Amino acid sequence: MSSADAESGVDAFSHLGETVRAALSDRGFSTPTEPQRRAIPPLASGRNTLVIAPTGTGKTETAMLPVFDAIVQHREREGSTEGFCALYITPLRALNRDMRQRLEWWGQRLGIEIDVRHGDTTQYQRQKQANNPPDVLVTTPETLQAMLSGSKLRVALSDVRHVVVDEVHELAASKRGAQLTVGLERLRLLSGSFQRIGLSATVGDPEAVAAFLTGSRVDELPESETDADRDFSIVEVDVGSRIEFTVTQPEITTADDRLAGKLATTEEIASHVRVIREIVETHESTLVFVNTRQTAEALGSRFKKLGDPIEVHHGSLSRDVRVDVEDRFKTGDLDALVCTSSMELGIDVGRVDHVVQYGSPREVARLLQRVGRAGHRHDQVSHGTIITSYPDDTLESLAIARRAGEGLVEPAGIHTGSLDVVANQIVGLVMDFGEVSARRAYQTVTRAKPFHDLTEDQFRAVVRELHSNRLCWLNEDADQLEKSGGTWQYYYANLSMIPDEESYEVHDMSSRTQVGTLDERFVINFAAPGEVFIQRGEMWRINDTDEEGSRVNVAPIEDPAGEVPSWVGQEIPVPAAVAQEVGKIRGIAGSQFEHGATASTVAADLCGRYPTNQSTLETALDPIERHVEAGFPMPTDQRLCIEARGRTVRVTAAFGHEINETLGRLLSALVGQQTGSSIGMSVDPYRISFEVPQGVNGGVFRDILQSTDPDHLESYLELALKNSETLKFTLAQVAAKFGSLKRYQGRNRFGGDRLLDALEGTPMYDEALREIFHRDLAVDATADVLSRLQSGELDLVLIGDETPIGTSSRPSGQELLVPEKADASVIEAIKTRIQNDRVLLCCCHCKDWNHTTKVRRIREQPECPDCGSTRVAALNPWADEVVSAVRADDKDGDQKKQTRRAYKAANLVQSHGKQAVIALAARGVGPHNAARIISKFREDEMEFYRDLLKQEREYARTQSFWD
């Protein structure tokens, strides 16, 4: 540290009072960290401040030392306050526990009471906090919502002078954050102005996030409402320069052959496991980040199989399990944790000296957040290894690593104008005051930055909707909002803006402990008795499911392969800037190959620009080299290619998930409109694949791209979304937050079409569209792409065949799932599940009889009890419309295909009996595939079920084309 820095450090601590400085000395804080050097002076002066610095560099103390000092000095001058002095708000309950432990010493040393409050806080503790408020309360955004309406707590909250929001970037990008900003404005009505402090490890747009935190700036307020406490400072410690990355795709060795034998998996996966184990063995404490809970469970199960001291950590594990592995990792009993974003935030697990990112991190912010957890104490450099699996994965990771080194972080993507949040907070204001003027409610909401542009017309439309749903009353004569009979119940049922979705607790019957949770969709689709799945990195067999208690009872088993459970969660979208850099790499490498360069030469050149090795780059360049050798034009950041073969048309476009999703929806809607057929679509960051009717070629797609008016793109997309499950699903969630539906209980429990018809033209419909546009699509950026295509700034090339680049996409599903050669217990579980599935039997001869029953109860040769015919179709148990089509004997119209399919199924059952019923009961196995599977000669019945499993996997891989 230079003398100037030392002086700066002394100056930083000199802004604190004598009592706190003495505590600093006792704690061993001789010199401050860089965030403390730079942030304590503005914080000590009472200024709103956003502090951006790597995890573990003392951000918590940076924020709280000036707050503690203010509390101590106020107490020394005026005595103790009656209420809360400061709120420390975190997005996770686990962080609450961490913060309390981290702040406890300071509280004891300074005589400051610190407590925690969240959804699991006991009633006794809540009452105690209301009667005798602690000086500092650590809480969550949702608990703050509950506190704002309590009579005693409102008195306690009136003394708040400081609010710290931890991991503010996590909240800024969600509706939870939008709700919190209005909650802070409601708090301000109680307490007057207070200091706002935001903490984050990575932020791409600091000015926007700081404004999100502090509310409307002075120049944005009406003249009658000047407000000097809205200004802010930003203290940003460079993260990228303190982090080193290595990107590697492991080479397969002979050791991997042996490891693969132990794991019953492929040599490629074994190579990944081997490299991770080597990294773990050469470091003291390693975090292995993965992008999904499924991958965490699958990878964790491999380490369990090998007996490694490595555990799994993610949000669907029970709190006790998570706390246990955190503590064991912290004490050194575990060498590594395989974790998801649950460990991105600042949960204290002790010192981490290396981070592995398994697969592309998809975003710069995510990579910096994750790798920033390693080796950051005492200004050390953080080290991370990204392990990749295929060319797109490698090139994407290289682009992200380079951009991370330069600090090119994506914007937070702040939700603006969320109308369901407005509805929620209007009811909150009515709860606060009993009655409140509509004008005051509007001003309060719009002082929060996400709602600064909310119009009075939009606000009044929301109020009228709440009035019609009887959540509050609008007295139009007095322009007053008043409580109704439904106000209280609605508010406390909707403290959170996270959509209500059913989850099932998983309980181990042998130890009588909770293992974790499963989403309703997994339970419905896979959780039959006898089914085997992985959770906590261990194998479990389902004993039974308690539907009413939302509980799955399981028992542990020894089994190397089972179904990996799925949880609700979106794929992390790859930003346009990252995808564009991948396109640029393709262009550079392609040009070099065209001029005769070898893969070794091109790889050596790129190694000078990106943090990787020669072997990894040569593997990643293989599709590009083959593409050039075949003579195809190269898709780059400046060129789109349309390729077609058979019924597949593919647009290779390096624009990232959101632009490609937007282009895909536009093209599928307009091509479908022209052809009168449904167009299947699958999207990744570098290509959009379509399944088209016979006779549709790439020229149709080219013409649409060249002729669609960019100015009308939003209108086209709205029309395209009207029949989509996405809109119906989102609309149901939004309607629940408006109180128009009972609390959301699963996608199959409401009539999506009827809901759409009923709510079109309401604020709920507008909000559902807004959310989809914000969450999934990029309208403005896509309109710009169309403009550049039509002006000739971007090339558009039509290719009459599939290409190496077009077909080298990211594998569907996780490469660590069930091994291709599933063992006997898995096949037995598949057999049990199918035998217990229900099918609808329908007579295609007399057309009068139909009956739903389990497969295992069906005779070897099913026949109609009415007419005795064996021409019986086996259908999905909900296929009532097919039965109607058969009875009507439709030969044309929309039901023609259904009738034909039923007759094909009946012919198959007539020829092959129960075996055909079993095949037709498997997921995604229609009459054509069932006939092909049945026709194969086998000596073993298990091989028949193995073939059904293979077809089910193929259906899961291509399902997006058919849904």
UniProtKB/TrEMBL annotation:
The segment(s) forming the Helicase ATP-binding domain are: 40-221
Q: Which GO terms describe its molecular function?
A: ATP binding; ATP hydrolysis activity; catalytic activity, acting on DNA; DNA binding; helicase activity
**Which positions fall inside the Helicase C-terminal domain?**
274-420
Q: Which SMART domains match?
A: DEXDc, HELICc
Q: Which Pfam family, an example, fits this chain? A: WHD_Lhr
Which GO terms are recorded in the biological process aspect for this UniProt protein? DNA repair
Q: Which UniProt keywords apply?
A: ATP-binding, DNA damage, DNA repair, DNA-binding, Helicase, Hydrolase, Isomerase, Nucleotide-binding
InterPro entries given in the database record: ATP-dep_Helicase (IPR052511), DEAD/DEAH_box_helicase_dom (IPR011545), Helicase_ATP-bd (IPR014001), Helicase_C-like (IPR001650), Lhr-like (IPR017170), Lhr-like_DEAD/DEAH_assoc (IPR013701), Lhr_WH_dom (IPR045628), P-loop_NTPase (IPR027417)
UniProt similarity note: Belongs to the Lhr helicase family. Lhr-Core subfamily.
| Protein name, entry field | ATP dependent helicase, Lhr family
